[in-house]
Amino acid sequence: MRLHRNLVFATIDALAEIFNEGNYADKVIEKTLKRDKRWGSRDRSFIAETTYDIVRWKRLYAEIAEVKEPYKREDLFRMFAVWCVLRGITIPDWPQFEKTPERRIKGRFDELSRIRKFRESVPDWMDKLGEEELGEKVWTKELHALNEQAPVVIRANKLKTNPKELAQVLSEEGIETSNLRNYPEALVLKERANIFKTKAFQNGLFEVQDASSQRVAEFLDVKPGMRVVDTCAGAGGKTLHLAALMENKGQIIALDIYGNKLKELKRRAKRAGAHNVETRSIDSTKVIKKLYNSADRVLIDAPCSGLGVLSRNPDAKWKLDPEFLDRIRKTQLEILEQYSRIVKEGGKLVYATCSILPSENQKQVQKFLKTEAGKPFRLMKEKVILSSESGYDGFYMALLEKE
Ligand SMILES: C[S@@+](CC[C@H](N)C(=O)[O-])C[C@H]1O[C@@H](n2cnc3c(N)ncnc32)[C@H](O)[C@@H]1O
């Protein structure tokens, strides 16, 4: 691989913004890719993938390069040189890479690879917590899986198409996919591509949604004609899936505390042809109280650490901290206690997170069942999806019935 100066410089600029200014990697990359219209798809994927790679391996690379935060530009070039050496890419003879100690880099890599927190590149506190909660064996395997690049999975929108037909349409647009066994609506891309540009996407034939995430709406056991409340709907990944499972019949009320996310949800629902979705912003407790005892099904896709989706969002390793986790666990329990009241008698509730920590998952459900609001509920089943076992995101979901 020959490195192009403008692409490497764009990557270094993006890294400076992510590491030193604390901006979100996806947003920074999106902005960086708009910088030069002449960049083709290969150039764009070089910038995106290299930036994500160096974000993912930040601790390991910084340790090998012997640099400390806040990183100066020359430090970022040193980390970039580590990336090159470990991938067997010839270092260009630019002044920025003068005297790159290739042998020393390889030696340091071998040394540090013996220690999990360096090998898998995570902060000390996260490594300790993961081991405490999951045990040494599971955490080691899981962490390794969460450092793999995530495959691109899409969900065929059954309101408009089916996986077979969609695969054909995408193939005609030059995008090859394969089926995913046991995931009835999913297709996985054989090669990464900018699928948002396809006509199929613009016509609402699919959504990008990880395979594990596609399990959540299924778990809620919805039927056409039901009244369903999606309480933490965000931009509507699961809402749209629910609409498809309900064949557009019945009612879905999508809630979130952020109005801008719900705006995006509405745009996506229109594209997907989902007509039974109504959005409501939670701007006071009244919004929730008005819905008490009214829904056949309630989904709580709770805000969480996102530790199950590190392969998609490696940035979270550096943005999360133990205080945030404490706060989010409190919020999760409050949400469970309040929003569960929306379920009517005989109705069902799914509590889901994209975390793999029992303290955000099973333990929260157990705590909830002991509260006043939890008393009428019975845990019907729960599913723990580990990335190391499924090959997709880590997720948790619990189905509860109100008796
Ligand atoms: C895991 S995300 C939801 C993802 C979304 N369901 C999807 O499938 O695309 C959690 C969502 O909860 C929202 N949220 C955070 N605190 C909340 C609260 N107290 N009540 C309702 N929603 C909340 C966040 O804005 C975020 O959109």
TrEMBL record:
Boundaries of every SAM-dependent MTase RsmB/NOP-type domain copy: 142-403
GO molecular function, one term: RNA binding
Coiled coil: none
Superkingdom of the source species: Bacteria
Name of one Pfam family that matches: RsmF-B_ferredox
GO biological process, one term: RNA methylation
Binding site for S-adenosyl-L-methionine: D256, D283, D301
PROSITE patterns: SAM_MT_RSMB_NOP
Catalytic-site annotation from UniProt: C354 (nucleophile)
Record flagged with keyword Methyltransferase: yes
Family: Belongs to the class I-like SAM-binding methyltransferase superfamily. RsmB/NOP family.
PANTHER family (UniProt xref): NOP2 YEAST -RELATED NOL1/NOP2/FMU SUN DOMAIN-CONTAINING (PTHR22807), RIBOSOMAL RNA SMALL SUBUNIT METHYLTRANSFERASE B-RELATED (PTHR22807:SF53)
UniProt protein name: Methyltransferase domain-containing protein
Species whose genome carries this gene: Christiangramia aestuarii
